[in-house]
Structure formats: structure tokens, C-alpha cells
Automatic annotation (TrEMBL):
GO molecular function annotations of the record: glycosyltransferase activity
Keyword Transferase included in the entry's annotation: yes
Keywords: Glycosyltransferase, Transferase
SUPFAM superfamilies named among the record's database cross-references: UDP-Glycosyltransferase/glycogen phosphorylase
Domain Glycosyltransferase subfamily 4-like N-terminal: start-end pairs: 18-192
Name of the protein this chain belongs to: Glycosyltransferase
UniProt organism field: Candidatus Bilophila faecipullorum
């Protein structure tokens, strides 16, 4: 097997940090353990100042001819797409059985994954830091989009390597839920990091300490950015008893950014620490770092998040007593509960510092544990595990995955289909490489960084790259661009609403397409429909006619979520329109009620004993919101003080809003009726978790399916509905089913029955 290792992980900006160290060590040990496999190293010639270091680094463990260098046009410039093409062409010219990418998230690395070639790919996911701290690391839109693009490259990899179980789980949670794609490859400390390195005698160590103005026994920390929690360490050190603090200095190494250093200095001063009590040191060579590890009285790693946290392992390897936070991957490295503290709890860190600096038996246990623990990590074992994973990937690689273009609204567009698509696409990604096509890809990325978004203009240029196109049509303004796309770029249509008359009117109102509604009305329904529009007005024609014929004619097939929509198609247009039609039940995930219902209720201002009735979705006359208010007022619940009726959604019909307000205008009960306005996904789920009864009513069904009913049932919420449209298809006994044209007293009786 020929393995090509892309070395940009030790060439780009991260070459002096953990990414660079991990890349070099993993590559070296794969080479040392390669057996009959051939290993080639690929380097980016754009990083010319790193090439000699790479040659020196790998000298003696691989032949010089195995280092292959390629050149790009300009890293991260206007030729980024061309650079990606050149990169894949270069890799393909090496004829690898598999490519290992080490620096996928390095900002200035030039990369492309299977955009042009079908080379099997393994890639390293070091951590989910930008995903978890978006506001800090991805505040700039350009950075956000670039990072998202790299995430989507990662999802195309055949296998993903992660340095810890924590990083692997974060990959599944933040990027791709498929459990079989991630292999954990923990690093080990470099052999030079030992408690007895011959190159570091006591005189050398003392000299390094003097050069850095370290004049007392000292506590050592590593890293200065916010995530490393150096501020928390400074705060905790300042809270030690003055007599104890007087005996030690606090040294924080690896503070590379002058702004970070200035900020930490101000923080120390604010907490009463004098300059001589703390030393803030910049990046340093490994020899100096080894000396500090060996000389420190205590090593503290208070980080808020680490993909692995190599400094902790290096400190233990050098014989330092070490304590660390209990966050992210650090407990799996430390494997010692009494050495852990809560990163964001200053008192927890102070107590652990106090114990480690005053309890010699505890400190001795930390040293012994660290010495034992570091021996369980081995680069040779990790490299052998990596090679097995590469072998299995090549041997078991399936056929090329098909590419699917998924055309649909997504958040921030306020459509129920936006939520639906956000849940469906991750499931489709188990079978396809999915690209989501939207009007504003940057806005959509901000809402869901896990998915791959492209604008409509890009899709128009790349349509032929896709094996499948799936359109999601609904009866709203969020779909007006899809009609022209479907005509030019055919695909399968998921018909969320059989009636599309409102969407055609929106094409006139929002897209400025003259007579869009009338043309489609005539095409679908002929002169009688046009006469209806002329005699009775456009609104009457919109309500009476579905105007959906052209979408079905231009589609390669139609999917609906109810038999009712198919029946409507046969009734309006004839059986020929349903020959390429499939009914697939609406997507619904399993849900569970919250064990902490009381806290959720408090967050919404709802009492723990309040009986909560909810109706979910946009408020319009077709949702019979006024009928629900009348039924509630006629029930025994209306006069009870511990009752609440909540409409979870925003008004979509001014006349319906006026009717609702009028019904409640002279009622003292109106304070127990709440309209939330637009509900985010989180708000929607919260109300589902506190809801005692759901009421989802409908009239004049347009062939849609209610996601709200299915979600309520998945949460185990008793639900009242009526036999209108697809609602009538619900299995007997799953809901309280009223007749389509029910009476107010019947709804009131149903509410009373569920309350009692």
C-alpha cells in the first residue's frame, strides 16, 4: 500500500504548536512501523522556509526521494479554487492508495478533498474548539465560512483520526454522527521529555531558570489564550495565603501574543499580584520547556478545552507533579480523580493548589502517578493503530458516494421546512455527499455549521457535478426561486404542500415576475380558473385552486408525506400525475420529556402546578386558533387560575389576530393566554417538554402534513386534533380525534377529559 502523508500540518501556522508536533511524530512513527508499505511525504512549496527543517527532521528515517514538493498559485488568495485543483492533481500523480491530511484546519494550508479526484482520504480532527467557541474564534464571517468549508471537506474523508476520545465524541456531535468513521490516535510525549535527559544537567536547568528571571520555587502553567484559562490560574494564585504565595513564583510559558501578555499582566495587577510574583514567558525551544517541567514545584493545566492536552503528558513525563482541570480530554489523560479540579470554579483550583503546595505526600503521589501514567502512551502503538485503520479503509472502501444537491429553505428563514431539513440532511449524509442549495449560504452557515451550503448561483454553474437533485417545495415565499431552478435543472420534488398557489402569488409580490400566478393558474386549471380570478378576485382563486401542475410535470418524481396529497393530485389532475409518486412518512426523531421539568417551567415563567395547553405553528385562520380559544373558554379550564393556553408561533394573518384579540378583549382569562411569537428550535422544544396537552386543529387543508402533531406524539403529549386532510390518517387511538367540522362543546369536552 502506498501512503501519502500531507505535511502541511507541520508547515502552516500551527507548525510550532501541538498540530505541528503531532504531525511530525505521527509521520515519523508511521514510517518506522510501515513494514511492507511505501510512505511518501508531500510538502507545500509555498512554505519555502519550512522545507529545510522538514528534510532535517526526517533525515535518516526515509529516503530523500520520498519527499515530494508541489507549488500552488497563492495560498488563500483569489486562486484558492485553482490551488485546490492543482493540489488534487499533484496528489493523484503520486498514485496513492490513501492520502493522510494532517493540517486540514490550518488557515494557510492549501487543500481539497475529492472535489476533482476520488483518492481515498484520511484526515486528522484535532479538536472542536472553533465550533464550541464560535463567537471568539469565528466572529469574522470570512473565518467562519473558511472553517465551515474545511469541516465539509472533513466529512468527505473516508476515515477520521482524533487524538482523544473527547475529540472523537466532539467530532460526532459537531460534524458527523456516523460512529464508524472515527479512530482515536492518542499522542505520546517526545522521548526527549524525560525526568533524566542527559542533555539537561542541574546547572543547565538553573541557567535556563535564571535567564527567565525565575528566582524561587515555582508553579508552572502553559498557554496564554482565553481557552487556556491563564486568567483563572492567576486569580487562584492570588487567593493563596500570603505566606504561602511568598514562597513561590507563578510562571506561565507559551504566551505568544503581545496583546494576550498585556491583558494577563493587567489581570494579575487587578488581583494584587506584583510583577516579580509572576513571569509571563513567550514561546520557547523544547530544551527550555523541558527544563521548566523538570524544575517546577508543581505543574498546573487549567484549560477549559483541549483536544488532547499534550503539555500535561509532557510534564508528567519529565517527573513534574501535575494537576489539571476536569474538562474535555484532560481526565482521560490524567486518569486520577484527586488530581482534577473544576476549571471555571476558582475555589476548586485554589483548594487543589493549596493541597499540592502543602501536602508532600499528595505531591509525591502525583509524581508517582505521572511516571506510571505516561508509560501507557506510545507513539509506536498509535502509529500501528493508524496503519491498521488505513489498511482497513483501503480494503473496505465502498464505491464512490453519490453527490446530492438539496434545495430547500434553512434557518434563518422562518419556515417549518427549515427545521425539517436541518434534521433530514444529517441522515441523508450517511448515504450521499450532500450540498445544501440556498439563497444566502453565509446566513445559513451561521445557523448550522455542520452542513455544506452553496448559493443558487454556484449550483447553476455546478449542476452537472451532482448525481441527484432534491427540491423541497412549500406554499410560501421561501420557495419562489425554486420554480425556475426546477424548470432548468430537473430533480425529485418533496411536496410539503399540495397547494402552491400562495407561492406563485409570492413570485409576483417578492420576485416581481409579472402575472406569475395567472400564467400558472391558466396552465394548471384553464379558462374557468381565470374566470374565477376575474369575477371573484385573486384571493378566491388562490384559495380554490392548487396551481401545482407545473411542479409535478417538471419533476423527475414526487414525494409527499401523506396519502391525502396524492389523492388531491389524482382528483385535480388525474392519475397520470401520480405514477412517479411515493408517500414517505414525515421524518420524526425520538424525543424524551425533560427530567428537569420544573427548571424549564421556571425559565418560561410557568408555575410548577400550572396545566399547560399548547398549539404549535404559525397562527392563521386555517389553524382554527379562534376555535381553540372558544373551546378553551367554554371548558372548565378557563376559570381555573392554574391554567395556561400557549400559541407557540407568530401571527401570519392580521384578520385572524384581530379575531383572537376580540374573543379575549373582555375576559379576565386573557392573561392566561400567551402568544410567543416566532419560536426558535430551542424554544419550540422547551414548550414541547413542559406541555401537558397539545391541540393541533386544521381546516381547508392544502395537502400538508403536521410536523407538530408527530413531534407532540414523540414526546408522549396527549394531543387533540380533527379529521381534516392528512390528520385523518393518524392511527386510531394515538390522538383525541374530533370530527372535521366539530362543535365548540366537543372541543371543550375533550379538554375537560384530558385535564381530569
Amino acid at each position: 500500500m502506498r501512503i501519502v502523508i500531507d505535511l502541511q500540518g507541520c508547515q502552516a501556522a500551527g507548525r510550532l504548536r501541538g498540530v505541528g508536533r503531532y504531525t511530525v511524530a505521527l509521520a515519523k512513527h508511521i514510517i518506522n512501523n510501515r513494514g511492507d508499505h511505501e510512505v511518501l511525504l508531500a510538502a507545500n512549496g509555498h512554505f519555502r522556509d519550512t522545507l529545510d527543517d522538514i528534510r532535517d527532521c526526517f533525515y535518516g528515517c526515509i529516503d530523500g526521494s520520498a519527499l515530494k514538493i508541489w507549488d500552488c498559485c497563492r495560498a488563500n488568495g483569489e486562486n484558492e479554487a485553482l490551488d485546490g485543483l492543482l493540489y488534487e492533481y499533484f496528489i493523484r500523480s503520486l498514485e496513492p492508495d490513501i492520502l493522510l491530511i494532517t493540517g486540514l484546519f490550518e488557515r494557510d494550508a492549501v487543500l481539497s478533498v475529492r472535489a476533482y479526484a476520488n483518492t481515498p482520504v484520511a484526515a486528522i480532527f484535532y479538536d472542536a474548539i472553533p465550533c464550541l467557541y464560535k463567537d471568539y474564534y469565528l466572529a469574522d464571517d470570512e473565518d467562519y465560512v473558511r472553517y465551515a468549508r474545511r469541516l465539509h471537506m472533513l466529512k468527505k474523508a473516508d476515515v477520521v483520526f482524533a487524538p482523544s476520545r473527547c475529540a472523537a465524541e466532539d467530532y460526532r456531535r459537531c460534524v458527523d454522527a456516523r460512529p464508524d468513521r472515527v479512530v482515536t490516535l492518542p499522542p505520546a510525549a517526545d522521548p526527549d521529555f524525560t525526568a533524566s535527559a542527559a542533555s539537561l544537567d542541574e546547572g543547565t536547568i538553573r541557567g535556563i531558570c535564571r535567564r527567565n528571571a525565575i528566582t524561587k520555587p515555582f508553579v508552572l502553567g502553559i498557554g496564554g489564550d482565553r481557552r487556556k484559562n491563564a486568567e483563572g490560574l492567576l486569580t487562584a494564585f492570588s487567593l493563596l495565603p500570603p505566606a504561602l504565595r511568598e514562597r513561590y513564583q507563578l510562571v506561565i510559558a507559551g504566551v505568544s501574543d503581545p496583546r494576550e501578555k498585556a491583558s494577563l499582566r493587567r489581570h494579575a495587577e487587578n488581583w494584587g499580584l506584583k510583577e516579580h510574583e509572576t513571569r509571563l514567558l513567550g514561546p520557547m525551544p523544547d530544551t527550555d520547556l523541558q527544563a521548566l517541567y523538570r524544575a517546577c514545584h508543581l505543574f498546573v493545566f487549567p484549560s477549559l478545552y483541549e483536544g488532547f492536552g499534550l503539555p500535561l503528558l509532557e510534564a508528567m513525563a519529565c517527573g513534574a507533579p501535575a494537576i489539571s482541570s476536569s474538562s474535555s480530554s484532560l481526565p482521560e489523560i490524567m486518569d486520577c480523580d484527586e488530581a482534577l479540579f473544576e476549571a471555571e470554579n476558582p475555589r476548586s483550583l485554589v483548594d487543589k493548589l493549596l493541597r499540592a503546595l502543602t501536602d508532600e505526600a499528595f505531591r509525591a503521589r502525583l509524581i508517582r502517578h505521572g511516571t506510571r501514567r505516561m508509560k501507557t502512551f506510545s507513539w509506536d502503538k498509535t502509529a500501528q493503530k493508524a496503519l491498521r485503520a488505513l489498511e482497513e479503509t483501503v480494503a473496505g472502501r465502498p464505491q464512490k458516494r453519490l453527490k446530492l444537491a438539496y434545495v430547500s429553505p434553512f434557518l434563518p428563514e422562518k419556515s417549518g421546512i427549515s427545521f425539517y431539513s436541518a434534521e433530514l440532511v444529517p441522515e441523508l449524509e450517511k448515504h450521499y455527499d450532500v450540498t445544501c442549495v440556498v439563497l444566502d449560504d453565509k446566513a445559513a452557515l451561521r445557523e448550522n455549521i455542520r452542513l455544506s451550503f452553496r448559493p443558487v448561483s454556484w449550483f447553476e454553474e455546478h449542476f452537472r457535478d451532482f448525481d441527484r437533485v432534491l427540491y423541497h417545495f412549500g406554499n410560501s415565499e421561501f420557495h419562489i426561486h425554486m420554480f425556475d431552478l426546477l424548470r432548468r435543472f430537473p430533480g425529485v420534488v418533496v411536496l410539503h404542500d399540495f397547494f402552491l398557489s400562495g407561492a406563485h402569488l409570492a413570485r409576483e409580490a417578492f420576485a416581481g415576475i409579472p402575472a406569475a400566478f395567472s400564467r400558472e393558474l391558466f396552465h394548471a386549471h384553464g379558462y374557468d380558473a381565470i374566470r374565477t380570478q376575474y369575477d371573484h378576485g385573486t384571493h378566491e382563486a388562490m384559495m380554490r385552486y392548487p396551481v401545482s401542475a407545473s411542479v409535478m410535470e417538471q419533476s423527475l418524481g414526487v414525494i409527499s408525506h401523506s396519502r391525502y396529497s396524492r389523492q388531491l393530485a389524482e382528483t385535480w389532475y388525474g392519475e397520470a400525475y401520480t405514477r412517479q409518486w411515493r408517500v414517505i412518512p414525515l421524518l420524526q426523531r425520538e424525543n424524551a420529556r425533560s427530567a428537569n421539568d420544573r427548571a424549564l417551567r421556571e425559565s418560561l415563567g410557568i408555575g410548577k402546578d400550572t396545566f399547560v395547553i399548547c398549539s404549535f405553528g404559525f397562527l392563521t385562520s386555517t389553524k382554527k386558533n379562534c376555535d381553540l380559544i372558544e373551546g378553551w373558554l367554554a371548558s372548565e379550564l378557563a376559570g381555573h387560575k392554574d391554567m395556561l393556553l400557549v400559541f407557540v408561533g407568530e401571527h401570519g394573518d392580521p384578520n385572524n389576530k384581530k379575531r383572537m384579540e376580540k374573543l379575549l378583549s373582555n375576559r379576565r382569562d386573557k392573561e392566561r393566554v400567551r402568544v410567543t411569537g416566532w419560536a426558535s428550535e430551542e424554544d419550540f422544544e422547551t414548550y414541547m417538554k413542559v406541555c401537558d396537552v397539545a391541540v393541533q386543529l386544521r381546516t381547508s387543508s392544502r395537502g400538508e402534513t403536521s410536523a407538530a402533531i408527530l413531534t407532540a406524539l414523540s414526546y408522549g403529549i396527549p394531543t387533540i386534533t380533527n379529521k381534516n386532510g392528512s390528520f385523518a390518517e393518524l392511527p386510531e387511538g394515538t390522538v383525541v380525534m374530533l370530527e372535521d367540522d366539530f362543535q365548540t362543546k366537543e372541543l371543550a369536552q375533550a379538554l375537560n377529559g384530558l385535564w381530569k
